[in-house]
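About this split. The held-out portion is used to measure sequence recovery: a designer receives only the C-alpha cells and must propose an amino acid at every position. Recovery is the fraction of positions where the proposal matches the reference. Here is one held-out target exactly as it appears in the evaluation file.
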C-alpha cells in the first residue's frame, strides 16, 4: 500500500537528513550510548543542516515550514538506522517543546529564544514530572512565589529528557499552591540561573544515549519576563499541546516497529537451523506475518493522524488512542522480533537488542498508557 502522505520536498528532506545521520550520528552513536549523552555540538550540526525547529517562521529566523510531516521524517530515519536514543532528544526539541515557544511567547521572548532553538545553540526540555508525582500533574509541588519583578522557584523535577543538555527548561510550577489545575503556570528556567542545579544523569534500562536528569530549584529568581503565556493557564497549555506530543511518540513507535521488522526479516532469511533458514519455519512466517499486518494498520492510522494534526483537527482522544496502541505494538514487535534472533538478539551490539530496551519506556512516558485509556474512556461518556 503506497503511502500518500509525503511529497517530493519531504523526500528531499529525508535524503539530506539521511546524509546527516550517516556523517554526524551513526559513526559516533555507540560512544554516546556508553557516555549517556549526545554531545551538544551535534545539535548545532543539526541546526546548520536545517533539522531543528523547522516550524519557526522566517521572520523569527526559521524555515517557516510548519509541517509535521518533516518532523515525522526525522523520527522515521533515526529509527530506520537504529539510533533511537538520539531521536528522542531531537524529537523532544522539535515536536514537543517548540510548540510552546511558538504558541505562548511574547515577541520579546521569541526574539530572545527562537533563533537559538533553530540553530541548536539553545537546547530545550520540558519539566513536568516530580519525584512525588507524574500522572497526577495537578498534584505537583514545585512552587513559584511572586516577589517584586520576579518569581522565586523552589522544588524539584525528575526524569527530564535533555535534562543535562538543556539550556531552556519549560518548567511547570504552582503559582497558586492552593489550586490544583488552575494553580499551574509555565515558565522558562535558563541554564546558569542561580539555584538551578542538575542532578546526575540517570541510568536507564534503555535509551542510553539520551540524557535524563533530575533538576532542582532552590530559591531560583526567575524574571517575570520568563513566564510563558498567562499565570494559572499552564495546565490548559499542557493539555492543548499533548496531542502533538502523543502523536510524536506514536509515530516513533511505528517507525521503530518497521525498523525492527526489517532487521528481523533480513536476519531470518540468512540464519539457518536444522538445515533450513529460520524464516522458513512456519512459526517465523506466522509471527512476522502477524506483526507485519499490525504495523501496516498502525502506520495507516498514524499517517491519517498526522494529516489531521496538520489540519488542526486531531482530537486528544485520537492522539491518546494512537499513543497507547502504537506503543503497545512496539513492545510486542520488539519482544517477538528479538526472539527470532535467538541469543544474538540479547547482545547490545545488535540493534534489535537496543531497540527492545529503548521500547519499554514508550508505554510509560508522555502519559502512561493507562492514562491514555482514561482519556479515551472518558470521551466515551464513561
Ligand atoms: C526515560 C524517561 C523520560 C521522561 N521524560 C520526561 C520529560 O522530559 N519531562 C517530564 O516531565 N517527564 C518525563 N518523564 C516522566 C514520565 O512522563 C512519567 O514517568 C509518566 O508520566 C508516569 O509518571 P510516574 O512515573 O510518576 O508514574 P505514576 O504516576 O506513579 O504511575 C505509575 C503507574 O501507575 C499506573 N497509574 C497511574 N495513574 C493511573 C490511573 N489514573 N489509572 C490507572 N493506572 C494508573 C500506571 O500504570 C502508571 O504507569 C520521563 C520518564 C522516563 C522514564
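Reference sequence for scoring:
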Amino acid at each position: 500500500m503506497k503511502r500518500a502522505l509525503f511529497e517530493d520536498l519531504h523526500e528531499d528532506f529525508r535524503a539530506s537528513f539521511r546524509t546527516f545521520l550517516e556523517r554526524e550520528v551513526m559513526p559516533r552513536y555507540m560512544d554516546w550510548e556508553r557516555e549517556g549523552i549526545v554531545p551538544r555540538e551535534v545539535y548545532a550540526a543539526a541546526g546548520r543542516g536545517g533539522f531543528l525547529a523547522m516550524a519557526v517562521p522566517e521572520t523569527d529566523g526559521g524555515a517557516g515550514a510548519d509541517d509535521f510531516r518533516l518532523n515525522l521524517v526525522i523520527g522515521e530515519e533515526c529509527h530506520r538506522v537504529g539510533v533511537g536514543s538520539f531521536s528522542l532528544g531531537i524529537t523532544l526539541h522539535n515536536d514537543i517543546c517548540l510548540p510552546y515557544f511558538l504558541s505562548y511567547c511574547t515577541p520579546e521572548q521569541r526574539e530572545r529564544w527562537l533563533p537559538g532553538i533553530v540553530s541548536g545553540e539553545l537546547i530545550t526540555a520540558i519539566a513536568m514530572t516530580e519525584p512525588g508525582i507524574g500522572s497526577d500533574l495537578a498534584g505537583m509541588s514545585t512552587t513559584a512565589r511572586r516577589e517584586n519583578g520576579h518569581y522565586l522557584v523552589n522544588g524539584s523535577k525528575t526524569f527530564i529528557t535533555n535534562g543535562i543538555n538543556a539550556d531552556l527548561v519549560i518548567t511547570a510550577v504552582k503559582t497558586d499552591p492552593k489550586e490544583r489545575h488552575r494553580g499551574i503556570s509555565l515558565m522558562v528556567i535558563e541554564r546558569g540561573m542561580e539555584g538551578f542545579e542538575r542532578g546526575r544523569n540517570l541510568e536507564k534500562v534503555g535509551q542510553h544515549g539520551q540524557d535524563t536528569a533530575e533538576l532542582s530549584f532552590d530559591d531560583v529568581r526567575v524574571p517575570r519576563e520568563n513566564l510563558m503565556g498567562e499565570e494559572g493557564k499552564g495546565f490548559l497549555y499542557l493539555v492543548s499541546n499533548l496531542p502533538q506530543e502523543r502523536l510524536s511518540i506514536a509515530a516513533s513507535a511505528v517507525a521503530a516497529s518497521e525498523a525492527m521488522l526489517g532487521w528481523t526479516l533480513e536476519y531470518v532469511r540468512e540464519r539457518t537451523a536444522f538445515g533450513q533458514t529460520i524464516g522458513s519455519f512456519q512459526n517465523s512466517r506466522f509471527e512476522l506475518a502477524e506483526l507485519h499486518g499490525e504495523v501496516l494498520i498502525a502506520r495507516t492510522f498514524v499517517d491519517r493522524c498526522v494529516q489531521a494534526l496538520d489540519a488542526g483537527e486531531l482530537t486528544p482522544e485520537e492522539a491518546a488512542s494512537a499513543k497507547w496502541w502504537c506503543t503497545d505494538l512496539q513492545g510486542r514487535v520488539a519482544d517477538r522480533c528479538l526472539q527470532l534472533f535467538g541469543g544474538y538478539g540479547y547482545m547490545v551490539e545488535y540493534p534489535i537488542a537496543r531497540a527492545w530496551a529503548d521500547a519499554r519506556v514508550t508505554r510509560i512516558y508522555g502519559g502512561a498508557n493507562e492514562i491514555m485509556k482514561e482519556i479515551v474512556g472518558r470521551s466515551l461518556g464513561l
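Annotator remark: The chain is about 50% helix and 15% strand.
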